[in-house]
Write a structure and sequence with these properties.
This protein is mostly helical. It has helices spanning about 5-15, 20-30, 40-55, 65-79.
Length: about 80
């Protein structure tokens, strides 16, 4: 792809909403990954279910997105 179509595509992608950009980024990253390992996918499904169960049971607390981002920025700055 030449520079002009790539720049146009980049501009269009950046005009998407944050959720749409996240979905696009996820799809693009997946396209670069090796073939799926069903064992890993199954393990993640179990882990996600376990975590949802903890949240539903009141055993885990949730953090607002803005707080999470603040904590991550703070952590990155320390490194």
């Amino acid at each position: 792809m030449t520079a002009e179509p790539l720049q146009r595509l980049r501009s269009e992608a950046l005009a998407l909403s944050e959720a749409e950009r996240a979905e696009l980024a996820h799809d693009l990253i997946q396209s670069l990954d090796a073939p799926r390992d069903n064992g890993v996918e199954d393990a993640w499904e179990r882990e996600i279910s376990r975590r949802i169960g903890e949240i539903d049971a009141g055993q885990a607390g949730l953090v607002e997105r803005s707080e999470f981002r603040r904590r991550m920025r703070e952590r990155i700055e320390r490194e």
